[in-house]
Design goal:
The complex is a heterodimer. Chain A is of the alpha/beta class. Chain A has a single domain, classed as Rossmann fold (3-Layer(aba) Sandwich). Helix content of chain A is 38%, strand content 16%. The longest helix of chain A has 18 residues. By secondary structure, chain B is α+β, with helices and mostly antiparallel strands. In chain B, the strands form four sheets. In chain B, strands 5, 6, 13, 14, 15, 16, 17 and 18 form an eight-stranded mixed beta sheet that branches. The chains are: A alpha/beta, B alpha+beta. Chains A and B meet through helix 7 and helix 8 of A and helix 3 and strand 4 of B.
Chain lengths: 289, 414
């Protein structure tokens, strides 16, 4: 894998992988990953003729880790992605997101509909589904609420050799690597700030805000073994997508789809990206009279 | 001929003691070269149990996250399964409350933690040399270290050398530190996985038949197993079928379900056996320009499980001295020598009591253990030696180290 590059955007340093040539695909990881999450998909997409860009989102990997919770609002992070595309001269990327990265991808689709080609969301469905959670979904996201106590939870998670963190993560994803990453200076607070800045318990009580419909061709993928998120979150997302919507369920995978089913995810991406008619066709510049 | 590199400190040995010292010294702004003889870190079957007081030292060294990230697992209870304890007398000893703010002891893959410490030292600016062979140390006001790698012969002229080569005493032997060695029994160890039937928070240490067994879970169904056994038939786990015999030794009546959780586990690393030697240095473990730390500076019988905690204490104490002033003469290390001497004296004393009680076999030994249990139940103070692997030796009450106590313990239970 090539070296990561770094770019200054939005008052932070963003590290990213940029490989291959062709239509650009941006891969957005979730908690507590980094661009390393996509290590199996990157070569497959590059071979498939795509230019792959995988940033370490703020707070993770080799990117800056501001310590204030306010620095991790969804819009700020979407701005990082937009600024990255501007710096790289990318007009309309395909966007692929997992976990928090999927939430960012949805938000990007709302805010930047004309700067988006195809959208792929893994594990996390449309926030409209989340805004009216079923009882079952609330139980599954108990650990999200847990992250809401600033100051205390770092201590709790680190206590006794990160015992609680190990219990929450189990042997999922790159479990043996997360702790190393989160032990880096400021990394744990930064990672938890994603939770603190978003989806606070108060936000849970606010009425669902109206989300703009998504016109981009959208593929939702969910792993049948996901312990954190329910299938309903993904299947019910279809009604918020006005463009072509496709749902794929992977049986032998948990929450970390890109790691649990690397080949299947790559195949789904290659078979979907660029195949549908995009929502906003490239227009010829209007001739001036 | 280029001038030899002149780092502040050369650390010989990238194990737990050496690598943690490298982390602390680089964090303190010193230039460090760390020499390790392995080409890559792998399982050598070393100590993998860190006492709560050792965890405190690791925190002070700033390497506690290396343990956690390297796979450290907190153990919370010790089940007193033993042939001298009847089923309804078995107790769960809560190990999480010995030191405030620190939980139970940690069990972890030794080599993975060393690798992370070395990585952290390098990130802090240390130079790490793996595969360093034929390391020679010449003591003196400006010590000389030579070593060989694939590229050839190298020479370093540091201000100070830390010898941290473990029980091999590679540095100690070269600077003339001699040890008084004694051996009570043999030991062996192996990593296993697939121990899903074993409670992950529970360690076991007990004796049955002619083995003293130890099980230290490391989470996710993995565990480090150790056996201590008599010298008489020390080669029992060697040769073909050794691994199978080692696992089969856990088919014990005192373990739940006759130890099936262990005997059915899969080996996940090499099996290693060794004479369980205690080495007490006959003089101070240092000389002009060279200071020994960790097992290299002397060690108690492994049965106590305090080797790693001692290594942490050594690294922390010596690093504090190195970072406090530029006086690195032998006299500056006097507090270390003194504290280490009395610490090892206590540990050696305690380990000899534990060895005699728990690593001796046969009907008389079983009877003694039964009587000791009754004595300890009657008089709680008699359990003093058991404190030794939980709290720092200086915090264990003085009377536990008197010949009078040992004499009484063994006379009353003979």
């Amino acid at each position: 894998m090539t070296e990561k590059k770094t770019v200054s955007v939005n008052d932070i340093e963003l590290a990213y992988i940029d490989e291959g040539e062709g239509d650009p695909v941006i891969l957005l990881h979730g908690f507590p990953d980094s661009s390393y999450l996509w290590r199996h998909q990157i070569p497959a997409l590059v071979d498939g003729g795509f230019r792959v860009i995988a940033p370490d989102l703020r707070g993770f990997g080799d990117s800056s880790k501001p310590q204030e919770a306010e620095a991790y609002g969804m819009q700020t992070i979407v701005n990082d992605v937009v600024a990255l595309t501007l710096k790289l001269g990318i007009k309309r990327p395909h966007l692929v997101g997992h976990d928090w990265g999927a939430a960012i991808a949805w938000m990007y689709a709302f805010l930047m509909p004309r700067r988006l080609d195809h959208l792929v969301v893994l594990s996390v469905g449309h926030p409209g589904v989340f805004a009216t959670p079923s009882l079952e979904q609330r139980a599954a996201s108990w650990y999200m609420l847990f992250y809401q106590f600033p100051g205390v939870s770092e201590e709790l998670l680190r206590r006794n050799g990160w015992r609680l963190f190990k219990e929450i993560m189990g042997r999922d994803g790159d479990y043996d690597r997360y702790l190393r990453d989160l032990a880096r200076p400021g990394a744990l607070t930064a990672g938890l700030n994603w939770y603190r800045a978003n989806r606070s318990p108060e936000a849970e009580l606010r009425p669902a805000r109206p989300f703009p419909p998504v016109y981009a061709p959208t593929l939702g993928i969910w792993g049948a073994g996901d312990k954190a998120l329910l299938e309903e979150g993904m299947t019910a997302s279809g009604k918020y997508v006005k463009g072509p919507w496709r749902y794929e369920r992977i049986e032998d995978a948990g929450h970390w789809l890109p790691l649990d089913a690397p080949d299947e995810v790559s195949k789904l991406l290659l078979g979907f990206l660029g195949t549908e008619r995009p929502a906003h066709e490239e227009r010829r510049p209007r001739r001036r009279l | 001929m280029t001038r030899p590199e002149q780092p502040d400190v050369v650390i010989v040995g990238g194990g737990i003691a050496g690598a943690s010292a490298a982390c602390k010294l680089t964090a303190g702004g010193l230039s460090v070269v760390l020499l390790e003889k392995q080409a890559t870190y792998h399982d050598l079957v070393r100590g993998e149990w860190l006492a709560p007081w050792g965890i405190v030292e690791a925190q002070r060294l700033g390497v506690d996250d290396c343990f956690s990230a390297g796979g450290a697992w907190e153990i919370r209870e010790w089940m007193t399964w033993d042939e001298a304890v009847t089923e309804d007398e078995v107790e769960a000893v809560d190990m999480t409350r010995f030191i405030p703010g620190v939980g139970g002891p940690m069990s972890f893959p030794h080599h993975a933690v060393c690798a992370l410490m070395a990585e952290q030292a390098v990130a802090g600016g240390a130079r790490l040399v793996m595969d360093a062979a034929r390391i020679r140390v010449v003591a003196g006001e400006r010590p000389v270290v030579t070593y060989r790698t694939e590229e050839g012969e190298h020479e370093l002229r540091p201000r100070l050398v830390l010898g941290a080569t473990g029980r091999g005493c590679t540095v100690g032997r070269q600077i003339g530190v001699t040890m008084r060695n004694s051996m009570h029994h043999w030991g062996g160890g192996m990593m296993v996985e697939g121990m899903d039937g074993w409670p992950p928070d529970v360690q076991a240490m007990g004796t049955e038949g002619d083995v003293m067994f130890m099980v230290f879970p490391q989470g996710y169904g993995r565990a480090r197993l150790y056996l201590n056994f008599p010298v008489a038939n020390k080669h029992r786990y060697r040769g073909p079928g050794g691994v199978e015999r080692f696992l089969a030794a856990y088919a014990l009546k005192c373990l739940p379900d006759r130890g099936r959780a262990v005997t059915g586990a899969r080996p996940a690393g090499p099996l290693s056996v060794w004479p369980s030697v205690s080495s007490v240095p006959e003089g101070p473990p240092l000389t002009e320009g060279v200071v020994l730390i960790g097992d290299e500076a002397g060690n108690a019988d492994t049965v106590l499980g305090t080797g790693l905690s001692c290594a942490m204490r050594d690294a922390r104490t010596v690093c504090d001295i190195l970072l406090a002033s530029s006086d690195w003469s032998p006299a500056a290390f006097e507090p270390y020598v003194k504290e280490r001497g009395s610490r090892l004296e206590r540990l050696d004393f305690g380990a000899s009591i534990i060895s005699r009680l728990h690593v001796e076999f046969g009907p008389a030994a079983v009877e003694r253990r039964r009587r000791v249990r009754r004595l300890m139940a009657r008089n709680f103070a008699a359990q003093v030696t058991g404190l030794l692997n939980m709290v720092a030796p200086e915090d264990v009450p003085e009377f536990g180290f008197s010949e009078f106590f040992a004499e009484r313990l063994f006379r009353e239970t003979a």
